[in-house]
Amino acid sequence: MARLEDIPAGEREMLKKLPLPEFDWTPFVKLEKSLTECRISLLSTAAIQKRDDKLFWRGAVDYRMIPGDVDHGDVVMSHSSVNFDRSGFQQDLNVCFPLGRLHELADDGTIGSVGSFHFSVIGGSEPEKLEDSAREIARILKQDRVDVLFLVPI
Q1: ∠ Cα 136 142 145 (to 5°)
Q2: Which residues are bridge partners to 151 per DSSP?
Q3: Has residue 84 got a pLDDT over 70?
Q4: Which pTM does this prediction carry?
């Protein structure tokens, strides 16, 4: 991932001027159980998807659902930023989508279980336009009895 100081001055100034959305409220949920009892899923902004899914395009506000038992060789990235370094992802999926690490935590009892489904969106989309997708993801997570959604911002 590019560091701000490595981006050319003109583009850096443009990025500083991007509007930051403000939301009326921030939901917060106090966890009622220990992590050893929690079911956990992932959400990444790295435009991760299964090989046969529709590619993400710049500004997309939809999401991709990835099964918890997906073969890591069947996962691709369609992130479109020229500033994005994909070398870590190419070496280890867990850099952008730590599904393997999550299964290890469940296996050793650190967490209760791994959700059946995990999600990805493309970073750089306008957050306020992602509300419909967020509501759909929340509905699926609730049906899967997920207690914690681990956000992986890329």
Answers
A1: 145
A2: 43
A3: no
A4: 0.78
